[in-house]
Design a protein that fits this description.
The protein is α+β, with helices and mostly antiparallel strands. 39% of the residues lie in helices and 12% in strands. A hairpin with a 3-residue loop joins strand 7 and strand 8. The structure holds iron/sulfur cluster (SF4).
């Protein structure tokens, strides 16, 4: 659309910034362009919850077009959970509506004195009073705003979690469907700015260079894509949960043990049999991995149809807490969505407290009458309320595992499973070692999606990255190169803005296909090498920011549990990832020095020396 909206919540001033052609050529859009603005606007010492932090919403060149699964946007900020660079990707339908309102992105600076929301249309930008919305959960906020803005508007909002500065507040779109920018506390930054919501609406046309060609491209691929993802469409992302348990990938009791007999009961297959009503599709998607469920009676009855849990939630709030009751997990999911808090970190902090409690590391009085033991559903419900409202024990849990470990002292840090302050998601790095290196080096802390290499270790090939044969999940020697290239590819996807699942479908031809789509949409020709180089540039740009925050090899690590605790005997059960060895090779390939700082020459070659 050629312009970014800048809003200063402190002064109420708004301004339109023209997109610079060179910036688009260098950083593509989405996460890449957002990281560039972020670098320029936020110095490393800035307090994430202070007025000098910024909140950037960025679409990519594919957003709002008919390109597959491209209705996505990225939120970029400094994380109140990790105190380093943060980004969070979100699907749904908000991103394309932002574009149709006339903007490629929004940069929000300053802090409002009172609660407000931004009402953006293709005709006006208004900073409106949100007094009546403050305190409402995300579902009610969505419904109430629908009464006062255009009916077709898309809404991104925070819940009480973000308002109360729970360090892992999310930004939620789609109301009860809850497609969220979930990780690293982007919603908390929104809360610190007293910004309750951003509504977007517009009718502007998103221009496409070759619309006919794009439609033909879609025709050529959509049937095969639907076939490829038939399982995910039927059963959602948690369809393979029992298979994850079999492989040793599933988190069980804070990753402390190996087997979980109720895996099938919390899987997407079980959900499909019992409570699934519909599939949810983000804009432009033909796969539909989202779940819409309804529980008609019993203790966890829902008020009509609502979004159901996906894999990460079912695992982190299910097996990770020793809970094998899917309907209870749906309740946890609904509560986290209503409060607007990240289900991954919520699962991790509760599991940590359960383990610390089991080992007598928490004084009884601090437990606040919650019987936090493995499998205690009622206690989990009580604690989620306390986290969302920031009451009692919820005040401690709302700060994340790193802060909890510091407060409890003794050997509690052993049970705080995070990297750089961001909690480990629902995949065990002892089961697929790409995760070990991916978690250790991801720019936002422990993240499975910044490399997304682990799902390719199930027999897939990706020839254009130099891997024409499937890689074994325990292959040590080739893993550093694989993880590095996958990180570059995922940085590219986060900048173009497309769902990462479609990259599996493109498989061996992934770069060629992305180049085709980019050319059809923008007319810009980039070959495979240029595309991957752009991803590498963006990944390094984020690393440069983090190094200025003091991040180095000492932080590129894993919790000890994953490096020293074997889970049994046998070829796979006793495998521990050799992180140090893989890290040496990874740094060498990246042209980073032995303590993980990018070499100046490399940064120069990438064309981002001004950020060094
Ligand atoms: S596959 Fe799932 S996450 Fe990806 S665009 Fe489709 S519905 Fe959204």
């Amino acid at each position: 659309m050629g312009k970014i909206l800048k809003v200063d919540l402190g002064t109420g001033a708004t301004e339109e910034i023209k997109l610079n052609k060179k910036d688009i050529e260098t950083f593509i859009g989405g996460s890449g362009l957002g990281a560039k603005y972020f670098h320029e606007l936020v110095s490393p010492g800035v307090d994430p919850l202070g007025e000098k932090n910024v909140l950037i919403f960025m679409t990519g060149p594919l957003t709002g077009t008919k390109a597959f699964s491209s209705d996505r946007f990225e939120v970029i900020t400094k994380s109140p959970l990790t105190n380093i660079y943060a980004e969070s990707d979100c699907g749904g339908k908000w991103g394309s509506m932002l574009k149709r309102s006339g903007y490629d992105g929004i940069i929000i600076t300053g802090v409002s004195e009172k609660p407000v929301y931004l009402n953006i249309t293709d005709r006006s930008v208004e900073i409106a009073d949100a007094k009546d919305l403050w305190g409402l959960d995300t579902f009610d906020t969505h419904n109430k705003l629908k009464e006062s803005v255009d009916k077709k508007a898309e809404i991104a909002c925070i819940g009480p979690g973000g308002e109360n500065l729970v360090r892992y507040g999310v930004i939620s779109t789609g109301g009860v469907h809850a497609r969220v920018a979930g990780r690293a506390g982007c919603g908390t930054v929104m809360g610190s700015k007293k910004l309750k919501a951003i509504t977007v609406y517009g009718n502007k046309k998103v221009k496409v260079f070759n619309q006919k060609g794009l439609i033909e491209f879609n025709k050529l691929h959509s049937k095969a894509m639907v076939d490829e993802f038939r399982g995910m469409k039927e059963y959602g992302t948690s369809g393979g949960l029992a298979g994850c348990e079999e492989l040793g990938d599933l988190p069980i009791k804070n990753f402390s043990t190996r087997r979980f007999s109720k895996a099938e009961n919390i899987s997407g297959r079980y959900m499909a049999k019992k409570i699934l009503k519909k599939k949810y599709y983000c804009g432009g998607c033909v796969i539909g991995c989202g779940r819409i469920i309804e529980i008609k009676d019993g203790k966890y009855k829902t008020k009509g149809q609502i979004g159901g849990p996906e894999y990460e939630t079912s695992a982190m709030l299910g097996s990770n807490l020793g809970i094998g009751d899917l309907e209870a997990i749906c309740k946890f999911n609904e509560l986290c969505n209503r409060y607007g808090i990240d289900t991954i970190t919520t699962g991790s902090v509760i599991a940590m407290i359960m383990e610390c409690n089991e080992r007598g590391l928490i004084p009884k009085k601090d437990l606040d009458d919650t019987k936090l033991v493995w499998g205690s559903v009622d206690a989990v419900i009580k604690v989620i309320h306390k986290i969302g409202k920031q009451e009692g024990i919820g005040k401690l849990l709302g700060k994340g595992t790193r802060a909890i470990a510091k407060k409890l002292g003794s050997y509690a840090p052993e049970f705080a499973l995070h990297v750089k302050g961001l909690e480990i998601p629902a995949h065990d790095p002892r089961a697929k070692i790409s995760l070990a290196l991916g978690y250790a080096t991801s720019n936002r802390g422990a993240c499975h999606l910044q490399a997304f290499a682990f799902d390719f270790l199930g027999g897939n090939t990706i020839s254009e990255l130099g891997f024409p044969e499937p890689l074994d999940r325990f292959e040590v020697n080739k893993m550093p190169e694989f993880v590095m290239k996958m990180q570059n590819l995922m940085s590219l996807a986060d900048s173009l803005k497309c769902c990462k699942f479609i990259l599996f479908y493109f498989g061996d031809h992934v770069l060629t296909r992305l180049a085709q789509v980019l050319e059809l949409v923008t007319g810009r020709k980039m070959d495979s090498d240029e595309l991957l180089l752009a991803g590498e540039r963006v990944f390094n740009l984020k690393r440069l920011y983090n190094t200025k925050c003091g991040i180095s090899r000492k932080d590129d690590k894993l919790p000890e549990r994953f490096l020293v605790q074997k889970r049994g005997e046998g070829k796979y059960e006793d495998f521990l990832p050799p992180l140090g060895k893989m890290l040496d090779e990874y740094y060498r390939l990246r042209n980073w020095d032995e303590i993980g700082l990018p070499e100046r020459q490399k940064i120069k070659e990438l064309g981002i020396e001004e950020y060094y």
